[in-house]
């Protein structure tokens, strides 16, 4: 959850999902194995309703409330909302996200229920785990039983390794049930080993087993028991240390990790193995790690973790859209607002819906029908009113859901206007300009500037034209630094590249010094390269901004930096709901460029 809200500060936080999967696989499998040991059956009549009551009540409160809130406050949240709701409730959102792909605008405005891909993986796991547990139980007297989940874990890890393409969108391997099942299956294997004693006692209850045991009183058996006891005491001694070291390693991975080849070709497997050690070493007899895990704030997070996870992501998106409008000064308002709303929503969800559903039934949440008290009636009335209101809001939200976000529509309109303006000014097919003289380092006019950029520059194109009349702006969505050499090469070949080159391509990918060297060498020493850094919550943006700053500092005579990140951070109210693009018509981007050039000239360059 911290990774979702503080991706730049915790770039490896996504490993937390693998800890969660490992814990989930362990707990579910352990309950099934204990049921098999005690009753000889999985007891599906109890298993299925119990899983459904754990997942669905919280979901059925979350979805209508969030859709209603989106309809009231931020309709950008409702793009593709119908498909999201249907696939989440059917437990297949992860495959919907894989099949549907992800456009540039989905990245800028993530789907409001995108975080619930994990529920799809869990539901699908809940379907297949009874079969796996039953097969393991059937061959429990052999050493092959634990090989079933271990083989499935190995196969899942191998599939992730094979299907991952470095540099490509990792959604397929990250969201796939087949490719992201390592932690779940390792948790099953751990549960099998932990419940060995129950299986042994269940097996010893058979008459044939009791007869065999009574006839095999031997020194060898006694020696084996002593050896087994020695191994157990040794494990109890070292297990907490292994658990503690695993916890430290997982924290380091969360702080230092990245979504790179290491993560998908070994990192996720490693985090799952470390999670197994953490669980095993914590639950072992007399483990001193248990003192850490019963620390009340951690215990509370564990108790309410499902509700907190359900609510935090939609409220983060909502807070990102509303906080800049509410708080006019810069600050961590989005995070504070998200944390506050999530705490309130998760508490209400637990008290009003999840706890009564788990204790009584899902129907009891809406209609108390046994052991009814006044408190139950009041609670049910409040929940019923919320449900009725939110269902009405959900219908309205789905009926009126836009096909595109407001920012997408504005950018598409802006692109059309920019193209029309270029054609009108004969700038789409530009006439050759004379070779630029040695820069005089005076404030340039628009007809001295070639601007190449991404959608942030596109959103700011009106402002650039206003502040620098005659500027030649070539901006488009989803651009990265990779397109710069080709575009600059075309201008150089045509002899139309102007004296000042404004480059704003840091939003969508990392930038390296070698790429900047290539561009710098292409435009030559007689031109000034103006680098605009990026603003946003993408993991590559801070290191890219540092690369741009270092490059400008290393080439002060003909390269300067425009700190758009600082300007946007100081003026969040001018940003759209995605927190990245300036609103159409704002000239803050252009004014920041002008001020940066003026300061650079004033410094003596």
Topology:
Layout: H1 2-5, H2 15-39, H3 44-73, H4 81-90, H5 93-100, H6 104-108, H7 117-138, H8 147-163, H9 171-175, H10 182-194, H11 196-204, H12 207-214, H13 219-256, H14 261-283, H15 289-293, H16 296-303, H17 305-326, H18 333-359, H19 362-366, H20 374-399, H21 406-424, E1 449-453, H22 455-459, H23 461-467, E2 472-475, H24 484-494, E3 500-504, H25 513-523, E4 528-532, H26 541-554, E5 559-562, H27 564-570, H28 588-602
Parallel strand pairs: 1-2, 1-3, 3-4, 4-5
Summarize this structure as a short list of keywords or feature phrases:
66% helix; mainly alpha; 605 residues; globular
Task: Give a verbal description of the structure.
This protein has a five-stranded parallel β-sheet with strand order 2-1-3-4-5. It is built from 28 helices and five strands. The protein is mostly helical.
Largest sheet, spatial ordering of strands: 2-1-3-4-5
Q: Span between N and C termini?
A: 46 Å
- Count all strands and give the number: 5
Q: If you average the pLDDT, what whole number results? A: 87
Helix content: 55-70%
Q: Tell me what portion of residues adopts beta-strand conformation.
A: under 5%
Which runs of at least 5 residues are low in confidence (pLDDT < 50)? 205-224
Any idea what the shape is?
A: globular
Please provide a brief summary of the model.
The protein has 605 residues and is mainly alpha-helical.
